Amino acid sequence: MSVHVPPAYAAASSRHPVPAFAVGEVIGQIYEQLGPHPDVVMLFVTADLVGALDDVVATIRATLAPTVLIGSAALGVIATGQAIEHSPAISVWAINHTSVTPMTLEAMDETAGLMMNGWIPDVADESSTLILLGDPFSFPAHRAIAAIGQRHPHLSVVGGYASGRRRPGGTRLILNERFITTGAVGLLIPRESLAVENIVSQGTRPVGPVMTVTATDGGRSVQALALEPALDRFDQIVADATDEERQLMTEGLLLGVITQSCAQTTLVVSPIAGVDRLTRALVTAEPVDVGTVVQFHVRDRRRSTDDLSAALRNSRLGGRTAAVLLFCTTTRGSEVHRDPDIDPVVVHDMFNVPAAGMFCDAVFGAMAGSPQVVTDAVSVTLFADPDQS
Prior knowledge:
Number of strands: 25
Structural class: alpha+beta
Shape: globular
Largest sheet: 12 strands, mixed
Mean pLDDT: 88
Distance between the termini: 25 Å
Strand content: 35-45%
Radius of gyration: 21 Å
Number of helices: 9
Number of domains: 2
Helix content: 10-25%
């Protein structure tokens, strides 16, 4: 006689323009898949529904009654096999049979260094994964995640910066009944609770030679590459590029920072923020030090799909994957990538499991064994069934 084992994960989405109907649809879908009282519900809503967020959250808490509700408003949301932008939408992801610890974080500069209020070190020492959703205006993710990685080198940090709001105070992060506009909200998943694997895929193509940064202003202005003015070097690369590469450059130019540690090479790309024609310098999204090894990159849709597919095929969990969370940078949305469904479709075709997520200003994920903040990538987190952990 076979024993029915209830599923551990569920996902639901709705594009209904009326919030009351949309939330009713996702609640019904989650209830059918998991039943009431899931351990965790993750909620992602598009910016069009921010005005109704109070009612959406209250309704989910009253009907599904999850132990923990966490989420965010964003420029666009991701559901199983699709991305939804520029229209009202709700995407929900739920887990049963697991224990988690929710937290809120505020990071502040003190004389002794970066201080994080809300951090739970004892719990973190025993945890394998931290799902983190942050406010891009107030949460210094680069420094905070670097500090977390130094203190807890075996902790995986995944998630991203909420997108869609262009002024401080506009972000909407959710933790149970609270709406949070600064800092970050997080969910710690203990190692013994779930088997989790994170994959970051950038999918860009290098253009031109590898070079060393030989002069900066001490901040985000790269003044010289390989002993020549940075803009002169770039102009030469454009002159030597193919017609296809020049076209891709007009759609967005990125700078890849190459680091080497423990015989492992890591590439992190980020957009070029601008140029200073007077000083012939390039302005980068993040500070770059003298001695840094760099190479220009362009976005490549085919390379992006191939890289993500290969990473998923080679994943440690593989066929044990029972659910997925996706955090995509907005550069992989329709405004740049043209086809925002590419990443969700690749994941769906590979695993066909419950999936959800959102578009982010930057994503958090593991690269070369350490947590990173990446401004042009998709961060995919795979989850095994609890009884396979």
